[in-house]
Design a protein that fits this description.
By secondary structure, the chain is mostly helical. It has 2 domains: 43 residues; 33 residues. Helix content is 78%, strand content 0%. The protein is built from 4 helices and no strands. The longest helix is centred in the C-terminal third of the chain and has 22 residues. The chain starts with a helix and ends with a helix.
């Protein structure tokens, strides 16, 4: 996609922009690096195992179906 000259130009442009950003930076370089590293590590904690999560969905469906049948029983009796 890029040839060697384009890649060198992009890399040198990135270095120049980084130097300019460091000169204008409000925050310490270490604080910014720490913030960037922590921002990349966003992970959700694993509270329950995936297998248990599937069991909970199956249980909820098993409770939902009889609940719907009981709730709509008068309508079901009219159809029968």
């Amino acid at each position: 996609m890029y040839n060697d000259r384009t890649t060198d130009r992009i890399q040198s442009g990135d270095i120049e922009r980084t130097k300019q950003a460091n000169e204008r930076a409000i925050f310490r370089d270490e604080a910014r690096q720490h913030y960037i590293q922590n921002e990349e590590k966003v992970e959700l904690p694993m509270v329950i195992s995936p297998r248990f999560f599937v069991y909970l969905w199956v249980l909820s469906l098993l409770l939902l179906i009889p609940g719907l049948i009981i709730a709509f029983w008068p309508l079901i009796q009219q159809w029968l």
